[in-house]
Amino acid sequence: MTAARRPAMTSSTTSTPTPPRHSFEQAIEDVKLSKTDLNAVIMEYLISEGYPEAAQRFALEANIEPELDVDSIQERVEIREAIASGDIQSAIEKINELNPQVLDQDSALHFSLLRLQLIELIRKATATPDGDITPALTFATTHLAPRAPTNQEFLEDLERTMALLIFPPDNLAPPLAALLDPALRQEVAQRVNQALLLSQGERTKATLYDLVNYRSWANQKAIQAKKEHLPERIELGFDPAHNGHESSQNGSSLRQAADPMVTGWGPY
């Protein structure tokens, strides 16, 4: 007697179909980028923005041999960190040790650093009700007052800075409060970094910034033109996990490079 045939077992789970890719995204996928060019852009960013250890790791991962002056990069990093922490005198000394012509040839940058130093003296003097403002007044008279008459902008900046001694620090108007904002230190630190790069014959702005600017500009123009063939959101492509791409050899280093760059990016 023939045994009854058992029904075939079926899987209890069903696979979710992959959503179709937008034609624009597929067009991007079809563009073949040169890995050599991409590596060069990333390496340039890491060097110009001051990430010597990341640059060394990336060079090993990408199997490239760049002209990497680690000491020069580290010196720029130390200068930027000194400015960011408010140690302006140390930063000025390091700049002059690295290349004294940088400040000699850029009076506006030198004045900005001196004004930051004055702001730090005022910050210290006004931290307590009985703070001594004499060091701030002496510094302003000796180092900034002689430079102010040569430039109207210098004079206005000095007058605005000295106003910090008059008004209470916890109730400042926005233009005065901005002088005590750490963002001003970062702005001057970036200008110093660019000046040092220029003195070394390097680009003052990493190409990666230009690429992001161009991509963002094109994206905005396409949205304004209401192109129907574009997706609602166009990823910049820094993080492969967010746009469906597989992680590549450059993935980890690119993400390390992208994070600080994107947070500090803006039109210039």
Description:
The longest helix has 19 residues, at 107-125. Helices cover 60% and strands 0% of the residues. The model is unreliable at 238-268 (pLDDT under 50). It is mainly α and 268 residues long. The protein is built from 13 helices and no strands. It comes from Letharia columbiana. Residues 1-22, 238-259 are annotated as: Disordered. Involved in the proteasome-dependent degradation of fructose-1,6-bisphosphatase.
Provide mean pLDDT, rounded. Answer: 77
Give the number of helices: 13
* Count of distinct strands: 0
Helix content: 55-70%
Q: Helix and strand string, N-terminal first?
A: HHHHHHHHHHHHH
Low-confidence stretches: 238-268
- Class by helix and strand content? mainly alpha
Major sheet size, sense and barrel closure: none
Distance between the ends: 87 Å
Fraction in beta strands: under 5%
Radius of gyration: 27 Å
Global shape: extended
